[in-house]
Amino acid sequence: MPFDPSSFSGIFQYLVGFGAAFFAALWLSLIIWTFRDIRARTRDSFARILAVLVVAVLNVLGIVIYLILRPGRTLEEEYQRTLEEEALLKAIEEINTCPGCGRHTREDWVICPTCQTRLKKSCPACHKLLELPWSICPYCGAAAGETPSASTSNSDQLLQV
After folding, report:
1. Whether the predicted model's global pTM rises above the 0.85 cut
2. What is each CA distance from 104 to 76, 120, 128, in whole angstroms?
3. Fewest CB atoms less than 10 Å from the CB: which of 52, 72, 75, 127?
4. Could you report the average pLDDT of every consecutive run of 10 residues in the chain (161 residues)?
5. How far apart (Å, rounded) are the C-alpha atoms in residues 127 and 109?
6. Within 13 Å of residue 51, how many CA atoms lie on the same side as its CB?
7. From CA 150, how far away is CA 137, in angstroms rounded?
8. CA distance 114 to 47
9. How far apart are the first and last CA of the chain?
10. Among positive and negative, which fits the CA dihedral 104, 109, 110, 116?
C-alpha cells in the first residue's frame, strides 16, 4: 500500500483545526471561569478586570498566575468566618466573671468565693437575685431597699401609673 502525501495533508489540516478549536474553547472557558471565580472572591472591580485580563492574555500561564494570587476565601466564606468569630466573642462576653478578681462565677452567686466581692443583691420582698445597679425588682416591683410590707404599696403605685 503506497503512502499518499495528499491524504496525510488532509488529516493534518483536520487535526490542526480540531486542536485550534479545542484551545480556543479552553481559552474562552478559562476566561469565563476566572471571571466567575474572582467575582465570588472580591468586590474590587480593578482586581476583577486585572484577573480576567491576565488569563485572557497569558492563557494557561495566566490561570496559574491567577491561582497563585487570588484571594484564599470567597466572600461567602469570609462572611461565615465573621459570623463564627462574632458568635465566639458573644459567648465569651456572656461568661460571668467577677469584677474584682476576674475569675469565672455562676449566675446564682451573690458573693465571689475568691475575693468576697459582692456580685448580686437579694430582693427583700421575693428574695430573687438582682443586679447591683437595679433599684427596683423586675419580678415583684419592690424597690431594692424596701421591706416586704412597703413593696406592696410600691407595686400598687406602679400599677396605677
Report:
1. no
2. 35, 14, 21
3. 72
4. 71 93 96 97 96 95 96 94 92 81 86 89 88 88 64 46 41
5. 13
6. 27
7. 13
8. 56
9. 114
10. negative
Instruction: Supply φ then ψ for residue 43, to 5 degrees.
Output: -100, -5
Q: Which three cell numbers stand for residue 69?
A: 494570587
DSSP codes joined into one string, 3-50? --HHHHHHHHHHHHHHHHHHHHHHHHHHHHHHHHHHHHH---HHHHHH
Instruction: Tell me the one-letter amino acid at 56.
Output: A
Q: Which residue intervals of 70-147 are DSSP H helices?
A: 75-94
**What does each C-alpha distance from 59 to 37, 39, 139, 140 come to in angstroms?**
16, 19, 71, 75
3-state secondary structure of 122: strand
**Hey, what's the cell of 94?**
456572656
Q: Which residues contact 142 (CB under 8 A, 6 or more apart)?
A: 123, 124, 125, 126, 136, 148, 150, 151, 152, 154, 155
Q: How many residues does the chain have?
A: 161
